[in-house]
């Protein structure tokens, strides 16, 4: 099974996370494929808009729990280096020159929700849920969440989501401007395509220039990569992260001790 599906429909490209059995949990293979697609998309001048979504009933459940547990066995410097590489692969979508729409067809959690904040427009199904649950599993935020959330949502909203780790409904996300548009599941694809074609009908050079200007503030994101990878590397060596993952797997509330 291909980890990422790539489909071109006229001026619109679909990039789809393709591991529905695991709710499209982010994997190294997915990141590798996305990174490869970016120069391909930028080279094709017929592409006007990219839509990022997930196969099945989820956009993405975020980090793969097996991969997280495996990191508890590695040394901190190794984890820091590998986490920076992991972030950069997925967030290479920031290098896509045309507008990118995140279409959240279902849950978008953790690192996956951070990815949607790297997109230019966010739309969601009414049955979607969102959140950055890092602290609930004993892990500090990653995927540039400490940078993207304040930039996109503002500091108060970023503090709320990052410190509580709570999951919110699509309705609340719309009310607080986390997402731009909310549609019923049966209308989500059609309405997303309508927005994409509205953008695609505009002058390509002007659209790219507008996006480039808005993205000019993202030059500092590498500092977030360094900070977050270091903190996550430290968290991987704690007992709390093992407790957090175990609690999720047996569906109970974790008991953290700060060590």
Plain-language structure description:
The protein starts with a strand and ends in a 9-residue tail after the last helix. The longest helix has 16 residues, at 28-43. The protein is 47% helix and 15% strand. Strands 1-2-3-4-6-9 form a 6-stranded mixed beta sheet, with helices on both faces. The chain is built from 11 helices and 9 strands. It is globular and about 55 Å long. The protein is an alpha/beta fold. The mean pLDDT is 95. The chain has a single domain (4-185), classed as 2-enoyl-CoA Hydratase, Chain A, domain 1 (Alpha-Beta Complex).
In DSSP terms (H or I, runs of 4 or more residues), the helix count works out at: 11
Query: Main β-sheet, in a few words?
Result: 6 strands, mixed
Distance between the termini: 39 Å
- Got a strand count? 9
Class from helix and strand fractions: alpha/beta
Widest β-sheet, arrangement of strands: 1-2-3-4-6-9
> Order of SSEs, N→C?
EEHEHHEEHEEHHEHEHHHH
Based on the model shown, name its key terms.
six-stranded mixed beta sheet, globular, alpha/beta, 9 strands, three-stranded mixed beta sheet, 259 residues, 2-enoyl-CoA Hydratase, Chain A, domain 1, 47% helix
Describe the secondary structure blueprint for this structure:
Blueprint: E1 4-9, E2 12-17, H1 28-43, E3 49-54, H2 65-71, H3 76-90, E4 100-104, E5 108-109, H4 111-117, E6 121-125, E7 129-131, H5 145-153, H6 155-164, E8 167-169, H7 170-175, E9 181-183, H8 188-200, H9 204-214, H10 221-235, H11 239-250
Parallel strand pairs: 2-3, 3-4, 4-6, 5-7, 6-9
Antiparallel strand pairs: 1-2, 7-8
